[in-house]
């Protein structure tokens, strides 16, 4: 099983869109995917039209029983987000184990929830480095963070890297002195437009950065997929859309394949 967290310090970078479409693509490749929505905006949960305000991720952070794994469709399950998660984070701020709650929940429920059935757990976080995001980072194999050609877009990368380093240093096994954080922090150039100066300048920088593994072109079709609640993988199955957007579909298929080979 691979656990991949989509995280960002800056909002509006296409994080949820990327998490959603990558998870859907993996499912279409016959991998079994569990989404965990740790964003209190719950956009991922809304995409799948899950209306659950009782058995959500909130119970993980409240140490309560009753976290439900919703079956969405073939190869895709979801643990719903909770609009009150930010308030819960504030209330547990002084708890010693606040950053290890998801780690403990996975350990305690691995057998009862049959978590070994999943090839991938995909976690979508709020654009910050809060308690929920730290919980996700600690259990992850890989962190994927989008970078966009916007003001302060690339500088947000250094912000995340510094916070990641700090978490790695402070989250240790006190017996061995080894960090419990062993995830790789990787970046994705996103919403890249070849005809704008900002995109060209960003591309020049990204080409020299080994931690940036792919660059995704800006396409309204991709950006709107979450609004339309229709993944790119679903669009690929439509013959008319395949005829019209086949070149972009093939490009995105190669991009997601490259991500998979790097995580």
TrEMBL record:
Transmembrane segments: none annotated. InterPro entries: AAA_dom, DNA_Partitioning_ATPase, P-loop_NTPase. It comes from Lactobacillus xujianguonis. Residues 1-167 form the AAA domain. This is ParA family protein. PANTHER family: COBYRINIC ACID AC-DIAMIDE SYNTHASE, P-LOOP CONTAINING NUCLEOSIDE TRIPHOSPHATE HYDROLASE.
